[in-house]
Amino acid sequence: MNWHELGQTDLVKTANTSIEHGLSSKEAKKRLDLHGYNELNEGKKTSSLALFFSQFNDFMVFVLVAATIISGFLGEYVDAAAIIAIILVNGILGFFQERRAENSLQALKELSTPQTLVLREKKWMKIQARELVPGDIIKFSSGDRIGADIRLFDAKSLEIEESALTGESVPVQKQYDPIQANAESLGDLVNMGFMGTLVTRGSGSGVVIGTGMNTAMGKIAHMLEEAGTQQTPLQGRLEQLGKILIVIALLLTVLVVSVGVLQGQNLFQMFLAGVSLAVAAIPEGLPAIVTVALSLGVQRMIKQKSIVRKLPAVETLGCASIICSDKTGTMTQNKMTVTHVWTCGSLWEVTGTGYEPEGEFTANGRPVQVKQNKALQQILLFGALCNSSAIVSEKGKYRLEGDPTEGALLTAASKAGFYSEKIKEQYKIIEEYPFDSARKMMTVIVEDLQNKRFVITKGAPDVLLKKSTCILANNKNEAMSKTRYEEANTSIADLASRALRTIAIAYKPLTGSEIPSVEQAESGLTFFGIQGMMDPPRPEVKQAIKECREAGIKTVMITGDHVITAKAIAKKLNLLPNKGKVIEGQALNKLSVEELAETVEDTYVFARVTPEHKLKIVKAFQEKGHIVAMTGDGVNDAPAIKQADIGISMGITGTDVAKESSSLILVDDNFATIKSAIKEGRNIYENIRKFVRYLLASNVGEILVMLFAMLLALPLPLVPIQILWVNLVTDGLPAMALGMDQPESDVMNRKPRHTKEGIFARGLGWKVVSRGFLIGAVTLAAFMIIYYRNPDNLQYAQTIAFATLVLAQLIHVFDCRSERSIFHRNPFGNLYLIGAVLSSLLLMLVVIYYKPLQPVFHTMDIAAVDWLLVIGLSAIPTFLLAGSLLTRKN
């Protein structure tokens, strides 16, 4: 139903109501039973218990559980207990990081006004907004929130702030006449009001035409329920890795058992050996180390003013290829600011942004003294006098109480030294005729200290120009000639072409004490000039977009604002290239997600969009294989934020809905913080690659030493508990320390990783196999040397193999810090790693020399002379390959 097209008679008839009487109590009850309460559906909430158990819904965890069951079945209870401990640590870490459940729908509900003034049986009464029904007659005034979707039938100077729904920062001037407009573009429906929006000026009445989920807010709530959550690239790669490892483990088990049986070995012993190999193939500590690495990244990001709500999202940032950003409040400050002032013959530019009284006036790039220019003085002073808003200072910060346009006028005046407090002492407002959409003007009658009275009017420039018979030129009043009229008109068009919102100021002196009517006051005016304003870009955004572009990340602006404004801001930010496309919301209505996906690559600005459009845009980029980051601060951004691979909301200006739908919150509302977060995300992934390389090379070494020993009909060089100790404890600390490595200098000069890039890409697989092969070879060599020296002392040979394996891995960890040679990195560049390696060495010595632990780990004291063998063999894998790499590079 296109309610905005109906006249009052058709409106009342269609809604089956009465403007004079309202609904009867009986009819209201009937409609309440039919439509339900005026509230949003609550999604099913995740219990703490369910959230905790969800942490274990991971393929790698399933693999570990299988290993636990097998170890327990074979009587290896220490092994089983160790694996269970790792699983629990991983689950607890994830649980506490994601403890805050998503409360998007609850936050939406809180935007609804608790009480509303409604007409029932000819009486105005206050009721709970949840009890409103279609057909109710409600009224409201400045400061109220609209309780349901309504069609206006009365509006007096009514302005409603709808940025949470539409993204537009300027309150919408409302009227009640029928209009022809696109029903999908909420910002164009000037005779409608929407649930949860705020009345900033005037008053009005309307018929309720939608409640609960049948409102614009309800549509967003419905989209939030439907918006999917994306599996992160890291989750996908680790799941893929887990599947590969379990297949390898199963094949090795079958191979070993088969070879052993063919050799005439005991079946149970061979099965135990196979399980040992399976344990060696699976890096049991990997899930916990990944979780810890992500958590450490979260802590670093907090210091950089960003809060992570969903742990895996940290890594997702690192491969973001598209940033879809809301304009208002994200790229811009959401603070209207006067940037240009025109009076006949002169154009001034105004510096400074926001509501701080800091800035200067320039002409042709040179500073000017306001006190030396009467026309500039008066237009600024009159803009502050014809004003019903206020700028309030609290602890050095300035905030607006009232209309953003008026806030811009007040701030411009304060930059010239005209402060509200001083103005009120010198001028008295005798009468005020508020702004309304019919007149498009606001007028005040002012009296100064000399008891002189005069009219000040501000409003739409084209309207004021027609009402003016004179114009201020060269600091004198001149009759409004055709030439002057055209000059003013040209200036209005010029400022509008710069995407500036323009407000004209006019004046008229009064004689006598009689207060003129509004018609008398707003005629025969002297046109003073125009103030042009805009919601300025955040100063840091331009550089952030540039750095993102250098990192291979495209930034796209998505806004509910007009095309001209959006293009102007995009050009100021160097976001829109010369051949870049701009698409309006009406065009989006005609395109499916698949059709839109064919054009998004060349599109940089989407204007006049609805929440549905934002969701469609995000899906279209995802259809093209992009990892999408969506930023925003309003209710209208929430569904797209939730659908995106990484949803980012603003911490200060962001609504609760946007925050609860997001994965990342920018504490300082700074778009540039996204760049820092992406850098951290990339570094985290590179660090994960480092410790995956380290852990898997270690595992390959363990597999090969066990496999070759079996093929050579040798005893097992390592027992399962030793392998578990190496995987979980000895390897764990250095791996975690690798996760704390600082980013390399060129990390933001690389293009984003492709979503299909495997974790072994860029030569990582070769490094794992080659290093692992050498680690296994030297470990087996150490075992064989000692075993053949004294075949009766198997436990001592196993201890030597254990020490060689651990030491070889601890030396190898320094090679894992970079893709380049170990000789090109400062070994002391990561002090955490130094500490971790020393700790692991100490733990190894404790296991070898501490008598109570020797029976548990099947170890013995190592003679001093045999340490020379252990150290010499352990250094070979790292320095042999690193030396050959350096020689090849030279």
From TrEMBL:
One GO biological process term: export from cell
EC number: 7.2.2.10
GO MF annotations, alphabetized: ATP binding; ATP hydrolysis activity; metal ion binding; P-type calcium transporter activity
Membrane topology term: Multi-pass membrane protein
Transmembrane domains' residue ranges: 49-74, 80-96, 244-264, 270-296, 691-713, 719-740, 768-788, 794-816, 828-850, 862-886
Cellular component GO terms held in the UniProt record: plasma membrane
Classification via CDD domains: P-type_ATPase_Ca_prok (cd02089)
SUPFAM superfamilies, sorted: Calcium ATPase, transduction domain A (SSF81653), Calcium ATPase, transmembrane domain M (SSF81665), HAD-like (SSF56784), Metal cation-transporting ATPase, ATP-binding domain N (SSF81660)
Catalytic activity line of the entry: Ca(2+)(in) + ATP + H2O = Ca(2+)(out) + ADP + phosphate + H(+)
Gene3D superfamilies named among the record's database cross-references: Calcium-transporting ATPase, cytoplasmic domain N, Calcium-transporting ATPase, cytoplasmic transduction domain A, Calcium-transporting ATPase, transmembrane domain, HAD superfamily/HAD-like
Keyword Lyase recorded: no
Keywords for this protein: ATP-binding, Calcium, Calcium transport, Cell membrane, Ion transport, Magnesium, Membrane, Metal-binding, Nucleotide-binding, Phosphoprotein, Translocase, Transmembrane, Transmembrane helix, Transport
Location of the Cation-transporting P-type ATPase N-terminal domain: 2-76
Subcellular location: Cell membrane
Classification via PROSITE patterns: ATPASE_E1_E2
Superkingdom classification of source: Bacteria
Family classification: Belongs to the cation transport ATPase (P-type) (TC 3.A.3) family. Type IIA subfamily.
Name recorded for this polypeptide: P-type Ca(2+) transporter
Organism: Bacillus gobiensis
